[in-house]
Write a structure and sequence with these properties.
The chain has 361 residues and is α/β, with parallel strands linked by helices. The chain is 42% helix and 17% strand. It is built from twelve helices and eleven strands. Helix 2 runs antiparallel to helix 9, helix 4 runs antiparallel to helix 9 and helix 4 packs antiparallel against helix 12. The N and C termini lie far apart (84 Å).
Length: 361
């Protein structure tokens, strides 16, 4: 009798469980913003890689799914407005172009102040991200903007110099106007008569076409995407280096309301996205140079002396950057030494020692 009752109880429990409705998957809305158009490499890969990877990982547990709402190309913010847009909650997740915000995000310039070292997006992205995780400075800067730092993005193999007229050496840009963005405008200091003109990537075509500038610093994949060969058919391959210029961030208020499972997935996928985009940038580098030539462009290799002379002509912007952070109570010198050590461990040393002017302590 007891056995029959036990079996009946077990059967009843099983039937009740079967009749109970399954726990519903919670849907979480996520507005993603960037001011650049969808055709930009990092935006395309956010759509094609980041979002599907997050969806796949969340689907494995089945507890949550995302309702993605993507807004690119200036419909919510312009390229320079992503940081402010995420801060204000106009977007939940943003791809911040950090080179526009040197005063608010000074530590993000770590690769920009160390040119002529690593023309490798993968090495630079990994090194910068490790610095962000080992030192609190970078994440604190984003926290001050009501944002949570997820990962660094390096979307270019290396900056090169593009020109409207034939260019064969450093002397050919003397007295010229050069389009750039952020810290790379300082690369022109020390070149006689050269003047930097600030602009965004989407502006460079018109700046060159209208004669506002004679040259522009950008990378071959962007030159291909934005058809720069039509207005600047000469490239001097100087390998100024890869630079971190994108950071995936999340509005802090939005982040605080996310389940831990979703937070973990976003963090994990952000790092995968970092390496994925950097890998694509390197994979496309050679093909982009070939496409530039096919579109009518001419590429000239800068010689080692020109590269060394250019680096030597610059002020030591790396030491300035480090001591500037030191003066604010941040470990700028430590960060710089650690970053350069990571690149050296990856096989990259520059044509100039950017630590030479730093105190030995």
């Amino acid at each position: 009798m007891i056995a029959k009752l036990t079996r009946r109880a077990a059967l009843g429990a099983a039937l009740a469980l079967a009749a109970a409705p399954a726990l519903a998957t919670e849907t979480i809305k996520a507005v993603v913003i960037d001011g650049y158009p969808a055709r930009a490499l990092w935006v395309t890969e956010f759509t094609n890689f980041f979002i599907p990877e997050v969806d796949k990982r969340l689907a494995e547990a089945g507890n949550y799914k995302m309702d993605w709402q993507e807004s690119y190309g200036g419909s919510i913010v312009k390229p320079k407005g992503v940081l402010e847009g995420v801060k204000l909650g106009l977007g939940d997740i943003g791809i911040v172009t950090t080179i526009f915000h040197s005063s608010k995000l000074p530590s993000q310039a770590i690769s920009a102040v160390t040119p002529f070292i690593a023309p490798d997006a993968r090495a630079v992205a990994k090194a910068v991200d490790e610095i962000a995780n080992e030192f609190p400075t970078m994440q604190n800067e984003f926290a001050a903007q009501n944002q949570v730092y997820l990962a660094t993005g390096v979307v270019l193999d290396t900056y090169q110099l593009f020109s409207k007229s034939p260019i064969n050496s450093l002397s050919d840009i003397e007295g010229g106007k050069v389009a750039g963005a952020g810290m790379n405008l300082r690369y022109l200091e020390g070149i006689e008569g050269a003047a930097g003109v600030r602009g965004g990537l989407t502006d460079f075509y018109n700046m060159l076409q209208t004669g506002l500038v004679d040259h522009a610093m950008l990378w071959p994949e962007a030159a291909k995407t934005f058809k720069i060969a039509e207005v600047a058919p000469y490239m001097l391959r100087v390998d100024l280096g890869a630079v971190n210029s994108k950071t995936i961030t999340v509005n802090k208020d939005y982040w605080d309301g996310l389940p831990d499972e979703v937070k973990d997935v976003l963090r994990e996928v952000a790092v995968l996205y970092r390496d994925h985009v950097a890998g694509i940038a390197m994979d496309r580098a050679a093909a982009s140079r070939e496409a530039y030539v096919a579109a009518g462009g001419t590429i000239v290799e800068a010689n080692a002396d020109d590269r060394a002379d250019w680096a030597a002509a610059m002020p030591n912007i790396a030491a300035e950057w480090a001591t500037g952070l030191d003066g604010k109570g941040e470990p700028g010198t430590e960060m710089l030494r650690a970053y350069l050590g990571k690149l050296e461990a990856s096989g990259y040393t520059g044509v100039r020692d950017w630590t030479a002017d730093l105190a030995s302590n």
